[in-house]
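Trying the structure run again after the queue cleared.
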Amino acid sequence: MHTRFIQSILASILVIPLLQGQKTDEGRPLRDRQKLARAKSLFNEANYNGVVYTLEPLLKKWPSHADVNYYAGRANLELKHYGEAFEQLRSVILSGKRKFRDAPFWYGRVWQQLHEPDSALAWFNRYKKSLKKFGIDPYDVDYYIRQAERFKAFREKPVPVKLRKLGPEINTEFEEACPTINAEGNMLVFTSRRPTTTGGQRDPFDLKFFQDIYISRRDSLSGRWMEAEPLKAVNTPEHDANMNISPDGSLLFIYKNIKGKTGSGDIWVSREKNGEWTKAREWEGPFNTSYFETSAALSPDGKTLYFISERPDGKALGNGDIWMCQRISRREWAKPVNLGPQINTPYDEISVWMHPNGRTLFFASKGHDSMGGYDIFKTEKKDGQWTPPVNLGYPINTPDDEIHFTMTADGKTAYLASRREADENELNIYELDLSEYPLVASEISKDAERASTSSGAVLSVIKGQVTGNGMPLAAEVVFLDERTGKEVLRVDTDEDGRYFATLEGGRRYKVSVTAEGFRKWEESIYISKKEGPQPFVLQRNFNLQP
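Done. Tokens:
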């Protein structure tokens, strides 16, 4: 939406003398004045769709009215309708009405979202200069100035990625968001607000259809994503939003906010059993609170859950922080631990996802060196500590919100929900080609901090079931590097005796399987490898003897 006429307006407006305001509203019909009052009330309630709907007839009657344009422009900015916000806030600037002293700030915010950092900086600095008269800055203009400056710097050195909007098998004219992919690379789960939502009803707050969760499977021959289908067992007439799918594809973490039940957004879960998904239930453990929990990601070994929470714990650093929780036993979890100031900021962290290598964490944040809104960052676990978060750069990140990010096991393909085209008012899911921009090391190891990763390392999958006497067993499966004898990975089976592991392919491992009351099983296994978004998968079952 970067048109030439927009770019040419800045200089003229900056030198236009402010007018002496408008005539008062005396004489205007009472009903119209009541509509304006109603719009202001809706704005204070953050009901931005209601504001725009209420002011629409007034904009036709009073196209230059500063109050009408101010609240319509602010609402459209929140709704990401940047074209409308631009024209309306420009009208406020030209009106010169002094009650809207912050209009230059909001006008700068629109320029920022239009990817015009120089124009944004000009208006931010104009607003900042005016603060000397008013002595207050309710919007932390320096924060946005830093964002605009960062965007300029990132855009001058774009990272070598290619973005492609997924086709109608995934995207519609409605919102598609929250993409996540399993470690095998054959299952893409996402959230959509299309008319076929369960119940077919709209959220009265934003007038969009309620969220439902959809799943698409990759065609093994063509490699293309097939027509997405709703998860009928999981979806309800209310909001059902995807958080993440576990690496093995057996657990689906779901965001739910149930009136009279949760009091805020909580983590729920559905399990895959024999090809069918169970009805979602609340995730048991010390995770959910009366505050918002907005994202959850399970580590590949199933022993650590990373999640977002707004709980006001003594260790909390901002609105939403990233927390981690270690599994003590099959049904017990330790107390959640805040990841600390290296990762969390006084601003918002909102989503989190872990790569199948078990040590690279991706998350969305408004802090660190964000270039605007939420940006995607990565950090790695080394020597028991998280490395300083790194902004993934432009064009992965932009001044708009980039929130949900997921990647294939080989690290060469990622998926992102974003608005990239001029006519996009809703989020769509994009595929990113990262073949020239490696973001992860492929090797997975319990001692990964000190392990040397060969440049040709490729992740593979081994999975199966452990049984005894014809019944699934609660067992522990340990993988050792056959050459060095060092432990590489230790995983537990689930309630159905299933195990799942991601390991470096092209290597031989010694596998040890133990279960109480059964003989220990040991054998040597070679795990092959293959290039591409779908890794080599070895199916290996173990039948233990009493």
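Residues 459-544 form a domain with the Immunoglobulin-like fold (CATH 2.60.40.10). Worth checking whether this holds up in the mutant runs.
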